[in-house]
Amino acid sequence: MSYRHCNNCHIPRIVIQLFIISDDLFNYGRELYAKYGKLSKITGFHIRGVNVYSPEDAETILSSPRYNEKQIPYIFLEPWLGDGLLISKGEKWHDRRKMLTPAFHFNILKKFTKVFCEETEEFLNLVKEETKKDKTEIMPLIMKSTIRIMCETSMGTSMDEDIHTVLKKYLKAIHVLGECVVYRFSRSWFYTNFTFFLSKVAGIQRRAVKDLHIFTKQIIQERRRYRKQGKIVDINDDDEVYGKKSRMAMLDLLLEQEKLGNIDEDGIREEVDTFMFEGHDTTSMLLTFMIMRIANEQHVQDLIYEEMQRIFGDSRRSPTMEDFSEMKYLECCIKEALRLYPSVPFMSRILNEEVTLSGYKVPEGTQCNIHVFDIHRLEEYYPEPEKFVPERFLAENKSTRHPFAYIPFSAGPRNCIGQRFAMLEIKTMMSGLIRRFHLQPVTKHEDVAFLSDLVLRPKYPIYVRFRERKM
């Protein structure tokens, strides 16, 4: 059946509405699924597309290199991220992906665990101060730690006072830019650059982008100075991480590639912007939701603590890579949190050729919106999907599940390059937190509303109560 005659997945032509209040945009995708099922057609103004809510159709799109070109809303991020790994396509994307993959090698991550542990200790010291309070907003505590981890690992830059000065502007600018992107996304007449750049919001966006670029340029300049002073580890020494020329932390790798003429200064800035955003913002949000949910699930928290006791006993020592591999139940909890609160709740791809989805032929040039948030809640794969059940991710329970029914890091050729980094960081922070503190609920998980933004965010602040465990 052709796209034109896809009647049972047809929705009104002005589905890319003239106007949607941004706060309602998140729920809009849920409403389309409830009304039209696993495939629905979108038409209106500059857009022809389909909404995808099934793992089978998601696999068709994400697993093929023919459909890996990204579209709206990703292209709205170009003033900030340029043509970096998140947005680039074709040969440039392939070359950048190949260039950056060694920066996330196992041995690099192993080297980073020291920083993960040090920053987790700083985070736990902040949490200890919060035990005197009746409730604590989670997100601000988390964001300080995740951005420091990104700077001191992948970027090799210490968070001194000079960088702290621009950090506050950076964090605010991310929030402002997210609002600008959602504002534009919910008003289809702003999809063209010509109309958008005439708006007042474009001016707000330009100022936010300026602050974002100031921060990342300062990080790059700081690392250049450090290298000129000869403080960089010799890439030809016997160190297990730097023993191979290709195995370097990300920013050092980019600066080495610049010497070889494989990337210029703008290209370095694009990738630093991309990874600073993807490496801290998504992780911050996941940790915020996970801490809230674990506080609400006492039996789950008890099981995590029992696992930590089996691994560490009463020792205060830092975890090793071997310890992380033993955190089986905690890993299931992280995966269940990623199922319920995927950092990127939907993703889009443009079709470079005709494809069949759910039995319907969808033409070349169509934008496919894959709704990860809803796929993760399909009852045929996740009975009682709103319940927090880490056991869903035990080997015996996930073996028969469709592989694309769980895609928090996307899947296929354009899956998240930093997913192992993220999992290791989350394990470090969550294991440290549960070992030292008992989490008590303040914000109830059923009361959490979601906000349309660059990543999945809570509409209102999320609070929890921290109480120190007796050691």
UniProtKB/TrEMBL annotation:
<comment type="similarity">
    <text>Belongs to the cytochrome P450 family.</text>
</comment>
<keyword id="KW-0503">Monooxygenase</keyword>
<dbReference type="InterPro" id="IPR001128">
    <property type="entry name" value="Cyt_P450"/>
</dbReference>
<dbReference type="Pfam" id="PF00067">
    <property type="entry name" value="p450"/>
</dbReference>
<keyword id="KW-0408">Iron</keyword>
<dbReference type="GO" id="GO:0016705">
    <property type="term" value="F:oxidoreductase activity, acting on paired donors, with incorporation or reduction of molecular oxygen"/>
</dbReference>
<dbReference type="GO" id="GO:0005789">
    <property type="term" value="C:endoplasmic reticulum membrane"/>
</dbReference>
<keyword id="KW-0256">Endoplasmic reticulum</keyword>
<keyword id="KW-0472">Membrane</keyword>
<dbReference type="InterPro" id="IPR017972">
    <property type="entry name" value="Cyt_P450_CS"/>
</dbReference>
<keyword id="KW-0479">Metal-binding</keyword>
<dbReference type="InterPro" id="IPR050196">
    <property type="entry name" value="Cytochrome_P450_Monoox"/>
</dbReference>
<protein>
    <recommendedName>
        <fullName>Cytochrome P450</fullName>
    </recommendedName>
</protein>
<dbReference type="GO" id="GO:0005506">
    <property type="term" value="F:iron ion binding"/>
</dbReference>
<keyword id="KW-0349">Heme</keyword>
<keyword id="KW-0560">Oxidoreductase</keyword>
<dbReference type="GO" id="GO:0020037">
    <property type="term" value="F:heme binding"/>
</dbReference>
<keyword id="KW-0492">Microsome</keyword>
<dbReference type="GO" id="GO:0004497">
    <property type="term" value="F:monooxygenase activity"/>
</dbReference>
